[in-house]
Amino acid sequence: MDERDWTDRPLAPETPIVLGDLTVTMLPQAGSTYLVSGKMDEVVGAFGLDNGIICLLETQPNAGSFGIRTGRNSALIIYPDAHELVPGWHPAGFAVSAAFETYETILLSGPGSAMALAQGGVADINATSKSAMLRFAGVSVLLTQGENGYLLWVPKAQLTYMTSFLSGRN
Amino acid sequence: MQHYSAFSLARHALSHHKNWQSAWRKADPKPRYDAVIIGGGGHGLSTAYYLAKNHGMKRVAVLERGWIGGGNTGRNTTAVRSNYFYPESVALYDLSLRLYEGLSKELNYNIMLSQRGMLIAAHTPIQMEICNRIANAMQLNGVDGRLMTAAEAEEKAPLVNKSKGARYKCMGGIWQDRAGTARHDAVAWGYARAASAMGIDIIENCEVTEVFTSSGAVAGVETTRGKIQTERLGVAAAGATPGLVQMVGGDLPIHNYDLQAFVSEPVKPCLDTVLLYLGTGTYVSQSDKGELVIGGGLDRVPTHGQKGNLPTQETVISGLLEMFPAFAQLKLLRQWAGVVDVVPDSSPVIGPVGPEGMFVNCGWGTGGFKAIPAGGYLLAHLLATGEHHDISRPFDLNRFAQGRLIDEAAGSGIAH
Amino acid sequence: MSGSRHAELGRFIDRSQPRSFTFDGQRIAGFAGDTLASALLANGVHILGRSFKYHRPRGLWGMGADEPNAIFDVRLGQEHRPNQRATTTLLEDAMVVTSVNANPNAAKDRFRLMDRLHRFLPAGFYYKTFMALDWIRYEPMIRRMAGLGRVDPGYAPPADVPHLVAVCDLLIVGAGPSGLAAAHAAAQSGRAVWLVDDAAQLGGSLHRRGGQIDGADWTAFADATRYAVLNAGGRILCNTTVWGAFDHNVFSAWVRRLDGPDQHMRIRAAEVVVATGAIERPLWFANNDLPGVMSCEAALEFLQCYGALPGQRILIATANDASYTVASALAKAGAEVTLVDQRHDAPDADDITQIKSGILTAAKGKTHVQSAVVNGQDIPCDAIFCSGGYTPTVHLWCQSGGKLDWDADQDALVPRPGTSSLKPIGAAAGQFGLKAALATGHALFGNGNGPETDAVTPRAQAPVRPDPNLPGRQWIDMQNDVTLKDVGLAAREGFTSVEHLKRYTTLGMATDQGRTSNFAGLAAMAAVTGRTIPETGTTTYRPPFEPVPLSVIAGRRRGDLFNPLKRLSLEAAHCDMGARFREYGGWLRPAVYGVGAEADLAQKEAKIARDIAGIFDASPLGKLEVIGTGAGKLLDFTGYMRMSTLKPGRARYGFMLAESGIVYDDGVVLRLDENRFIVSASSSHVDGVRARLEDARQDRIGHRHVYIHDVTQGLVTLTVTGPKTLDVIAGAGIDLPDLPHMGVVETPLDGHFLRVARISFTGDRSYELTVPGRNAEGLRARLDASLKNAGGKWIGLEAVMILRAEKGFILIGKDTDGNTMPHDLGWVGPMNKRDDEYLGKRALFTPEGQSETRRQWVGLRVTGDAVPETGSHLIPTDGPRRSLGFITSSYFSPNLGRPIALALLENGRALVGTTVGCFNDGSVRNVEVVDACAFDPDWSRLNG
Description:
Chain A is mainly beta. Chain A contains 3 helices and 12 strands, in the order βββαββββββαβββα. By secondary structure, chain C is an alpha+beta fold. Helix content of chain C is 22%, strand content 28%. The longest helix of chain C is centred in the last third of the chain and has 16 residues, at 686-701.
């Protein structure tokens, strides 16, 4: 049996899928991302971030570097322009790994985006949590907001599945 | 014991069925018995029966805190089989299947054993290799198991998912001819009736509150219906067993979880065999009434709740429809859950525990129904002789300290 | 029963939109808004089905999920749904409706003669007989007689039901009078209310009973409530059934939509009000199952809501005040009504023939009601509507753990306060009548007086019980054909607990889930055994509240949304290169490349990989970065082979054991610097390995000294292997640093990241090249050109499995069976030498762990070309047959030109050089036990 019979291609950047009142767009990857672990209240200073660490459903800053909390002691930090960090142990007490394309970002926009979130498992769009990580459609993703809608940070290998899930295609 | 048959049914019809006797005596507890069994489920009742039948012990009581057969025996998905990997397991479950094969006649109670076969279906070449491994193990252990091809599987279950969009295409799997289903309530009632007819007291609404000992040996139990003395105590109480064993300072490696089962509205015959899909973890058969009987994995939170929650329901039922898309035409009629007593190596614990004269038969987890005859047979042997039968010896509690696990999940290479 | 359509009545139907369908071939006309039941009733169709066992003719009894008889198979276009309840199925034009379990149809069923045999077929008769032969000989006939509708084998409904999760502050289940009053008061006080009802419109029983609220028609109050709820930020869900109460205040709801797929909702509600009303009880008398016998409440509903007048000469039998409204309405609609009330102090009924102290003892008629016997007298009629009182609908209350009390005054089991956090009101709490409904609803959230009504509070219902002394058969469970005599039989045979009664007689187990039978069964059993109703108890209430389509619960989780596979970043490129994919360890990966038989392609690929070069995509291998001053310590504890002694820039093969000592995973650990390691877990075990590392990290090592990052998916790894590897890599313009075997280095490639690890899974010179995802296509393209130039091939997993097998390398889960310990695989060093603690250590030293008969990893050699089957068992060449182990991997080796196999064999290492038997499906051949490494045992090709 050829599994390709039921597969589909993942979202490509800048070719949005429009489904009624929901639009699903993949945002292009730019700059660099790192996974850092350590004392979270010292991360901004230690890594010279322009903005702070955001959590579940908080709005991402328009410009500058920032972080997204992924756990009690961990965050994903994003530098929109390329920025080199030395991977490994930093004596100040941080562990740093280059995340490269570990996450792809999907924008859910339009009036139907709340329903899309409800399908994935987000019962309350006013909920807060220190971490931005949650199970969405069975996958561990990060959920934040942008100026145009909700942002799902999806593990790369799950992108095709997430595209199928969001696009309602069965 | 009034004999059951078509003829006696007809005869009683003439007197409007007013002369049928109670299927089992509603006994009151006596102060003393030669053996007491705690637990009036399938295993407890079959233990009583085999004590009387095989060992001539009749001054025996079965103590059940609710109504007989009301625990897992009354809640399971009725599959019987012996398609296991390790010789010890095959010996155990096939003893049970062989006892099931003669049981209706022996008990004079129709337990509706339907040996319609069972397929454990594989979806990848590596799964087929493992199925071959299990089939060969069964054959070497003298049991009817064989590898089935995709074409044969489709013949056995024509409604299986063959569409292009299927997540799991059936490549065949392990087939056991003699596997099938039986009517779960009938097994409990049949054993109860036969045991009661031989003089054994079945005492319902009687909960054990204490086990008392004397000089390191069992002396009796305290119950909500009075004190009962005995020197031989068998415990076949599934999830309640660890609590009872703790009363004598014992410890069993058992955790309790909910296991849900589901039944659809009844339809005309649409599935003639028992089918388990390795990929979905869901299994299904069709009852004689026409209902689909469906089961799957545990609710993974330890509990005595007997309820179960939505995520597991969604998982199991979506698994069913993935296997059989046409069954999406049906509706869920009933759902229930039992508490399964799970042991780390997924094999039961049978043998002495605690003070002298006390024996357990528990830890069957999700697989106790098929083992009711063997469990009773072996616990009866322990109670009557004080010794293990060859078949129960490997399942003794001491196997954990020895490192001698009988890990069927590991042996099948499936969940590891 | 001569049903007809009233000229004006029918609030739910739209007479401007006619609709029609066929029922058993007969064309039936109706309107938009009709259900199948109302249309059939209005068209005077009597026989809608046959009972399960005795095939007696059956007509309509009820109005909703309590309907036990009118069950149909419904086809609309290519859609087919079996077992649809006529009362809850909306009529759609061109539906083809057929009766079930009747041959050829309900009206003319051939099996009606079964009823003559009823004496031989009491409850549980099958336990007493069918023992002469094996059950499976009787089964086909029994199964054909059983079951209601049919599955259409050719129709697969789409998997299009979305699952939605939601939270709400206040969930009110039921929008009848009490629910409306509660919602109104709550919304007025500013609460955001979710008001849910399973009908198409708010109002519940008000639609049929009417009533004045606050001096106006009740519809004004309903509208005001709707407005208030929406205004206060709430939601209104109609056509929605809340069918289950689960732990932690989660409720399941089935939302039926006409303009799209249904929805399944999981609602977490902070507060829940149960305003689910009550279900009417039947009366019990001889032949109470005749078509034409119906619930009073249902008759009223059909009349008022659908304009379906169910008869012309109607006898109403009751013992409660609520039925008087029904009598009046039917009389007003033009029917001739006789009202029989059991009570001697019954109220007077104006303009209606009335019999007080009247006991209905039998219905007469062949296929429908022709007369009723009251106080010994035959009264001609064509319909009998009866009411035995009402049973509060307490399902959700009980599902949530709530207990019931017997209220003798109300003659009902009612919620016991304080046993559940749910709040029952109105009829659901045993408070009957419009006044009580409004008052109890309002009292929950409102102050002072709530909505007022001048409706009279009905007197408490007089107790009505089945009388076992009546001659004739009285039906308790219509669908499953359980009579009052069966209850007596069950009691006689000792099945006196309600659970035993239910299982023995199957009472309450039909598709109406005991709505009209459970109370009777309970009351009858109580009477027969001399117990009170509370002493007899009830059966457990479980979800679903009413049957829910499996497709709703299953949702969209099908096909590629079911256990979704992880996908390679380069999947599209592999496709373009001709890859054929399969699932491996949770990922979709190329099995082989090209067109033709898979086995042949795998052979070719494995050969070229050793003759020239091969490249495969190894991206799924875990990349768990373990970073910190405690990293070495962590890996020493969680691993069998110590890693703290590994030098930076080097790699080491290792195991992770489970607590039971078995090999949980194997893989290579790379050390990049003093405080940085990368654990390359098997692709299928990445999450599991990470979880175990985390466990030890948090509990044992100290979570500030080491952290774990999973970057498996951010990078792509392409592995180049074979004698021409260096040429291929150089030809791709990659300046490869000099690396020893098991060396690793990070070095930029054209300004971007590249990690090179010289690790060999094939036994040939081999390099794993790892780049970020965004640079992967670039790397692939240049390697591809160079590979083609050299004459090499892209190889898939099938070839890789052959290559590693030629070297005797294990695959976790295939070559280890979950009892396999590290020393079984030949790795004895750490067990013998390590005296520090590590995961699984203790288990290695149990008697079983140290046994001399453990199954050990070996190779097998056969004569001839026939490849032994994987899964074959090894047996002694003589003596009793038993399993000594089994073949775990077996291939034809293109590089050796002969079959090779690997196995776990009892005491295997000591048996090298000897012969054992190999058993597969009954046939046996001999095999020689050899070393696991079949190809290049000197490892000379590693540096080739």
